[in-house]
Specification:
The protein contains ten helices and eight strands. By secondary structure, it is α/β, with parallel strands linked by helices. Helix 7 packs across helix 8.
C-alpha cells in the first residue's frame, strides 16, 4: 500500500515513525519546509509538491491545520486518482466542505498522543463514497498505534474530546492536584508526581481488568465516615461545574473552527 503524508509537524512525524515500521507500506512525504525532512530514512520518498505526492499514492493523509485543508485539496484535485482515499486529521472540517473541492472517497481520523506508546484510541469516520475495503484497509493500517474506533461524522467532535484532547485534560487536572499537594508536604516534586502517576496508571488498569466502574472504585476506597470520603465529597460538589465548562468551551471552540472553515470553502463557490 502506498501512503502519502502531507505535512511534517508533530503529528506528521509521529505517523511517519509508526507507519514506516509496516513492511507492507510504502511511504511518501511532502512538507513546505523541505529542510524538516532531512534525515528521513532512504526508503521514504520525498515528493516535490502536494500534487506530485497525490499522483503516486493510494491514500493521502493531510496532517495540516484546518484552514490549510482547502489549499491542499485544490493542489491535489487534478492529480489524485478516483480510487485514491483522501484522509484528514482534522475533525472540524466537514466532508461536505471538502467535497466542494474534491469529490472523492474520504475519511477523517483522529489519533491520540498515546500513539507514541502504541496505546492510541484512533477515531475514524468515512464519507458515503468510501467502501468497506477502504474502511478495513485504513483502520487496519493504524492498528499499529493501538485500538481503532469507528464513529459517525457528527460524533467526531465529542469523540476527540474524550480521546485526543483527554491526555491534555488529564495532565492539567493532575498538575493542579500535585501543585495543591506540594502546599502540605515536604516530599520532593518528582516523588509527588511519580506517586500520583503510578496510582493513576494502576487505577486505570484495575478498572479495565476487573471491569469496574467509577462508583465501585469510590465505594471501595472511600469508606463511610473515612478520610477519603471527605475528599470525594469535594470532588463531587465542586468539579461538575468545571467539567461542564471544560466541554462547553472546547466544543464551542470546535464549532467556531468549523464555521470559519465552512466560510473559507464557501468562497470557492462565489
Amino acid at each position: 500500500m502506498k501512503v502519502g503524508i502531507i505535512g511534517y509537524g508533530s503529528m506528521g512525524r509521529m505517523l511517519v515513525e509508526k507507519l514506516s515500521k509496516n513492511k507492507d507500506t510504502e511511504l511518501f512525504v511532502y512538507n513546505k519546509t523541505r529542510e524538516k525532512l532531512n534525515g528521513l530514512a532512504s526508503e521514504i520518498t520525498i515528493c516535490s509538491s502536494n500534487a506530485d505526492l497525490a499522483a503516486k499514492v493510494d491514500i493521502v493523509i493531510m496532517c495540516v491545520r484546518p484552514f490549510d485543508i482547502k489549499q491542499v485539496l485544490e493542489e491535489i484535485a487534478d492529480s489524485a486518482r478516483e480510487e485514491t482515499l483522501i484522509v484528514s486529521l482534522n475533525g472540524s472540517v466537514s466532508f461536505a466542505s471538502m467535497q466542494k473541492i474534491v469529490n472523492h472517497k474520504m475519511a477523517k481520523l483522529i489519533p491520540s498522543l498515546t500513539a507514541e506508546i502504541e496505546k492510541s484510541q484512533t477515531l475514524f469516520c468515512f464519507n458515503e463514497k468510501a467502501c468497506d475495503d477502504d474502511k478495513t484497509n485504513l483502520m487496519s493500517l493504524f492498528k499499529c498505534m493501538g485500538d481503532v474506533i469507528l464513529l459517525p461524522e457528527n460524533e467526531m467532535g465529542m469523540g476527540s474530546e474524550l480521546v485526543s484532547c483527554m491526555p491534555g485534560f488529564i495532565a492539567s487536572i493532575f498538575d493542579v492536584l500535585c501543585s495543591a499537594a506540594r502546599e502540605h508536604t515536604s516530599l520532593p516534586d518528582e516523588q509527588i508526581v511519580s506517586m500520583v502517576l503510578n496510582t493513576l496508571c494502576a487505577t486505570s488498569k484495575l478498572m479495565l481488568s476487573k471491569n469496574m466502574n467509577f462508583e465501585e472504585v469510590v465505594t471501595r476506597v472511600a469508606t463511610k465516615g473515612g478520610i477519603t470520603e471527605e475528599g470525594t465529597k469535594v470532588v463531587y460538589e465542586k468539579f461538575p461545574e468545571i467539567a461542564g465548562q471544560l466541554f462547553e468551551r472546547t466544543l464551542e471552540k470546535r464549532r467556531q473552527t468549523a464555521v470559519k472553515a465552512e466560510e473559507l470553502f464557501n468562497q470557492s463557490e462565489e
